Amino acid sequence: MTATLFTNVRIIDGTGAQPYAGEVLIQGNRIARIGRGARSLPTAGVTIIDGAGATLMPGMVEAHTHFSWNDAAGLSDLQRMPLEEHVLWSATVAKRYLEAGWTSCVGAACAKPRLDVVTRNAINEGLIPGPRYLAASQEITVVGGLGDETLPHLPFPEFSFGVAVTGPEEMRKAVRMFLKYGVDSIKLNLSGDNFMPSAPAGTTWMSDEEVAVAVKETKMRGKRVAAHARSCESIKQCVRHGIEIIYHASFTDDEALDMLEANRDKVFVAPGIGILVAMLEHAAPSGITRAKAVEMGYEIELAAASESLRKMHKRGIRVLPGGDYGFAFTPHCQNARDLEYFVKYVGMTPMEALLSATRHGGEIMMMGGELGQLKDGYLADLLLVDGDPLSNLAILRDPAKLLAVMKDGVFYKEPEIRSAQSRWGRVGEAICEPLGALQICWRRASLAACVARRGLAARLRGVGAGRQREALSHHGHERAHACRALLPGGERVHARLRADAKRQPGAWLALLAGRLRRLRGGREDGLVALRRGRRVRERGAVRSRCCRSACFGSCTAKTCARRWSRSGCPSCSPTCSCGSSAARSTSSIRRARSSAACRCRSCRCTRPTGWCCS
Q1: Which residues form the domain of 4?
Q2: N or C: which end of the chain has fewer CB atoms below 10 A?
Q3: Percentage helix, strand, coil, to 5, in the chain?
Q4: Is 350 part of a structural domain of the chain?
């Protein structure tokens, strides 16, 4: 059984708790242990991934998925794709969803009868990569409703992406057919949609008798019913008949909200708010200008949906992301837009938006006790994200920010480099702590250039102290002056810390304090990194033991700790150029004065006036 340890990561565990630094040990397909802090879990015989401060979070769940939607501009284009190409399309899209961080998906309808079932089975059998998937039926509608695309002169059902029925008996036949094919859920189109001029979103098309038959037949076989329900009356139909998954729910009144709240432990709402925004903002290249979208009713529906969803959220009704991605204006794998829209239109916090895609996602997958959170014993569906999703949810739809995707304990998107000079390594191969941090120094050009070319501070997460990160650059073209680390495989990696000559002349800061230990060839508790042989201690954010360090913690002025008073050593005259006091204890001043390396103008320092280093 394989074992993988994520170390040096910032954990968002999907419970709603604040992120924390820690480690996660994966054994087989489950999370074995979660530890807080560094080096809290055993490392013998496991593959170590040094996250270098990246965020580790549960895999996301898409609650309203259409793998077979083919990024076309209209509904009629779905049926024009031949079956063979459509199967390959669905398989390809499933792989893309997994690589985009959606480790589980709930099917919301397919374009042809068995597309979802075939895709799900191929994923489960390991024939194609893809997320955990619950297969849906085609959309079942009524004549003239959403999904009925037949034309008067071409009355062929194959032209419709939905199956049109009339009356309870035809409904029973259609439901039984899809259950025979092996679907996990039956999809009903209860309301209209603004895509259909003859059936707008506020209208309700299916009778209670037809709905009742569909629900009875489905639940008799232990499956679930999902419904396209934009109108207020269709939402009430869902609650009355026990439909668990409600898509859209744009128009509500107090009665509908009360019914939803009374059943909030049973129902899930996946509004698909992204398509409403897209129709107004992004559909012009597909021939739908904003003026046309307003005329179709999308502006009114977006306002109504925003108000309804805000009220649902306040009442504790579970609102989940996803829906109707797969059109030209809502392309596949941009589904994480919904999380941003939840903050903007639904009133969620970024943490609540993430919980809607993780913890609530595990619940809609009917795996709430083992999916959607990072807990001991839960399934190992994980994302390693370069950045903080709570600060910027948009990074979740940037493939470059997803460093790794794991489903069921197996990587489907591996970190960039699996070698001794990367985030990866084996303990048995003498992997040491600085691997992840050193990679940031010399493997990731964006951060290296940030310092080497622009002279800016490199924001290395969890490495040393704030002042120690300001002058980092890889020392590839000169001899190493400050620090050296011997990586596994015998390759020397040089990194030099040097201060900006204008701001900190002559200052040598410590690189990777407390990280460069257990070097190959023997263990060292520290690293000689400062002039005159001063040691950087193991957990050091140890700064120079000279008078200049007196002001580091007491002054917040921007120039403080960079530009010191030219009138003398702060240990003798403890005042910075900013005017802030840098008082030190008497014993500290005595130590500074007694040091052979610290003799300023006032205390006979041989170094230039205004600064001194021990």
Answers
A1: 1-58+372-415
A2: N
A3: 30, 20, 50
A4: yes
Are residues 481 and 539 part of one domain?
Answer: yes
Residue carrying the six token digits 């990587």? 411
Distance CA(455)–CA(499), nearest Å, equals 9
- 491 CB-contact burial (10 Å; exposed 0-12 / middle 13-18 / buried 19+): exposed
pLDDT digits (tens, 9 = 90+) for 496-542: 333 333 333 333 333 333 333 333 333 333 333 333 233 333 333 33
- Answer for the pair 189, 206: CB distance below 8 angstroms, yes or no: yes
- For the segment 93-107, what is each residue's pLDDT rounded down to a tens digit? 999 999 999 999 999
- Element spanning 9, H or E: strand 3-11
The larger pLDDT score, comparing residue 526 to residue 406, is at: 406
Query: What is the value of pTM for the model shown?
Result: 0.70
E-assigned strand segments in 337-391: 382-385
Geometric angle at alpha carbon 431, from 425 and 432, rounded to 5°: 130
Q: What is the number of alpha carbons within 13 Å of residue 478 lying toward its C-beta?
A: 11
Q: Are 497 and 510 within 8 A, CB to CB? A: yes
Residues 273 and 172 in one domain: yes
In a domain, 423, yes or no: no
Of 6-10, 263-267, 537-541, 572-576, least confident by mean pLDDT is 537-541
Under 8 Å between Cβ of 71 and 332: yes
Question: Of 543, 572, 601, which residue sits at a domain end?
Answer: 543
Return the SS3 of 141. strand
User: What is d(CA 57, CA 372) in angstroms, rounded to the nearest whole number?
Assistant: 9
Residue 471 domain-assigned (yes or no): yes
Which of 524, 543, 562 terminates a domain? The answer is 543
Q: Are 75 and 193 part of one and the same domain?
A: yes
Q: What is the pLDDT of residues 11-40, one digit of tens each?
A: 999 999 999 999 999 999 999 999 998 888
